[in-house]
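Entry 14. Ran structure prediction on the chain below.
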Amino acid sequence: MTVSEFAAESGYAVFCAGEEREIASGYCGDFLSNIISRAPENCCWLTVMNNVNVAAVATLIDCACIVLCEGVMPDEAFAARAKQLGLWVLGAEKNVYETAKTVAALCGV
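Output, structure tokens:
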């Protein structure tokens, strides 16, 4: 499933839209060094971190999209950098566990 299809199906907020990507898997985490070393390419990364470092890590791991969970919104610097880098940043009201279930159900991953 593409990120735009996922965004439409899930109803999640779209804070930033980027280049169309296929979601190949999901990954949950907030410890950035773990994300860098373990998150797979083209994943849907679920986190509650909302600072500019998330954009840098998302670029390093080449994720398909970032989903900010629990109603978290990107801070100003993060949103600006994500737009500059062409990253998809979505927002979910549910916690990480419930959001991961949605990713799995909709994307079949």
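The longest strand covers residues 43-47. Will compare against last week's run tomorrow.
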